[in-house]
Recover the amino acids of this structure.
């Protein structure tokens, strides 16, 4: 299986101001970007915010190629969303919605590109700490995010490999030739991940209450 990225940029080692920014501030930046997507009503403001985030991304040393790779997987979806919103609500609204989605993705990419995964997960554990009184398990929450960050690129890579294989056999227009191998591989990967977690006492079996007798 060859390596594949997905929506969020991978960590890029560096010593930029963005790298040295406290994790809490980066979390707030992502949260503020998500909040802004609901509050911004002018597409020109969205352009300004997106331009600012692009500047921060490039200043971090992550590079323009990673910036493009963060947007490329979204292009087909955004094209459909933009066309539909243009038809329904007009060009200004369509531009605002598409730009605000890009703002959210870029803010999250800036976080992952300048923060090592382990530090990111430690931050998640710390942030989820106050919710333990409500029955939450911060360690398990962080583990879930870690598995997600690992699984999405793997499954995306599986689909790309299957698609290339089907194209080489002239079956790229056959849905079964694309969906079935990806489904089987994804289920196998999920089972292997579950077995690995269970072997470390992290599966559901580890949560069962011991018998009273």
């Amino acid at each position: 299986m060859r390596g594949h990225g997905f929506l969020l940029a991978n960590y890029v080692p560096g010593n930029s101001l963005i790298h040295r920014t406290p994790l809490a501030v980066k979390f707030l930046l992502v949260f503020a970007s998500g909040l802004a997507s609901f509050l911004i009503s002018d597409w020109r403001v969205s352009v300004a915010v997106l331009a600012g985030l692009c500047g921060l991304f490039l200043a971090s040393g992550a590079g323009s190629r990673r910036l493009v790779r963060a947007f490329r997987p979204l292009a087909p979806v955004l094209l459909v969303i933009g066309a539909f919103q243009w038809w329904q609500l007009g060009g200004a609204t369509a531009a605002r919605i598409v730009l605000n989605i890009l703002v959210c993705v870029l803010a999250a990419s800036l976080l992952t590109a300048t923060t090592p995964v382990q530090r990111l997960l430690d931050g998640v554990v710390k942030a989820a700490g106050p919710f333990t009184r409500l029955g939450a398990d911060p360690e398990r929450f962080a583990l879930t995010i870690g598995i997600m960050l690992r699984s999405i690129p793997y499954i995306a890579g599986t689909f790309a490999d299957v698609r290339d294989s089907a194209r080489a056999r002239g079956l790229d227009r056959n849905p079964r030739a694309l969906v079935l191998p990806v489904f089987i591989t994804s289920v196998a990967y999920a089972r292997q991940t579950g077995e690995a977690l269970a072997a470390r006492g992290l599966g559901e079996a580890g949560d069962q209450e011991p018998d009273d007798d």
